[in-house]
Amino acid sequence: MKIRKPRSLVRDDTLGVVAPSRTIYGARQVLTKSLKLLKRFGFQVKLGNNLNKKCYSSAGTIQERLEDIHQMFKDQRVKAIFCALGGDSSNQLIDQLDYPLIAANPKIFVGYSDVTHLLLAIYRQTGLVTYHGPNLNILSHLTKSSVTQMMQVLTAATTTLNYWENVSIYKPGRTTGKLIGGNLFVINCLLKTDYMPDLTGAILFWEDVNENLGSIEFQLYQLKLSGVLEKISGMVIGHIHYPSSEATKPLKELVREITKSYAFPIIKVNYFGHRIKKFYTFPIGSVVSLNTYSQIFTINI
After folding, report:
1. Which residues sit opposite 3 in a β-bridge?
2. What gap in Å lies between CA 184 and CA 165, rounded to an integer?
């Protein structure tokens, strides 16, 4: 599959906003703050026609949410698409997305959490680099360094970024591969479907929320049983939000136990994931170099 990078952002570009999953009801105030932040950076903003719709807990019907995404890709003025927030219904869209339309109109697509469904499906079906970054409902709450880093990535202000920062080494080593990942639960949901990218030689990154360590252990075993751990060349673990403090193995111990048959390096960081103020943006499909001996975790933008 040929990897395609979308055009980088420049000042005065128009950014589209869609809600592919949960309704924005209850999040309007924080969304308004994030939109003002984007405008201060010199961007124009276009809201999806159905952004304010509500269908039970989702932001409109499946067709209304699809319509907004397709219209943003069609609109030649829109240079990037930001997701308003996550939820639990993005998977309803992936078998009905117009992938030829997306491939013919490549542009930046940003989100995380449940939006991982769309990030991975678009990358798998079109080869377009997508961006695991903050949804707009958290953007205005992030650290200044997080927002600066996101803009560096989306404007290609630099060609390479080194993400080695407060890293815990779970397993030493060195490797190079394409960066692929997102929410761990979603990754497991997409395995063995037409919407999961090929993980051969990939550096898999993941985070999760509201999962206790027993559940994390279960999901990592699913990756093992599905053959994923045999394919990848490295692993980057982000922030995990635990709902309880149940007694179980420490994360490092259970990860090392499950991956003991594999030689790839594993690191743990706390700058992507849920309920944190420092959230760095990762371009899915970009080439990554990971070397624990030289303290290198670089991504080619």
Report:
1. none
2. 22
The highest-level CATH class for domain 160-300 is alpha beta
pTM of the entire predicted model: 0.97
**Domain residue spans of the chain:** 14-155, 160-300
Which residues are annotated as catalytic?
113, 207, 274
| Domain covering 14-155: architecture | 3-Layer(aba) Sandwich (3.40)
pLDDT in tens, the chain (301 residues): 889 999 999 999 999 999 999 999 999 999 999 999 999 999 999 999 999 999 999 999 999 999 999 999 999 999 999 999 999 999 999 999 999 999 999 999 999 999 999 999 999 999 999 999 999 999 999 999 999 999 999 999 888 999 999 999 999 999 999 999 999 999 999 999 999 999 999 999 999 998 889 899 999 999 999 999 999 999 999 999 887 666 568 999 999 999 999 999 999 999 999 999 999 999 999 999 999 999 999 999 8
CA pair distance 145, 159, nearest whole angstrom: 18
Helix (H) or strand (E) holding 81: strand 78-83
